[in-house]
Description:
Layout: H1 3-39, H2 54-89
Helix pairs in contact: 1-2
Amino acid sequence: MTQNNTQAELARIHRSMMIVALIDFPGALLFGLGIYGLVAGFDQDFLPILANQAVIVNVMLLLGAVIMAWGMFRMVMLAREKQLLLQQRK
């Protein structure tokens, strides 16, 4: 693999990692708010829509966990690909 191809491939991997991080962020927010809803509970002062919605809190937890798991899996795969590319370069 030539130097230019390697650099282009590394740039593609880096760009993909940034996109995965951006997609993963809302999942972390959903999961965090779901944990908050389970532990402290939502009252009328903070997100009054969710004050009496246990099902929505559970859906937030599940959806956030799924998004974060996908992000972790995808990030690990991209990191492996980057590591293999860097090892071939040596």
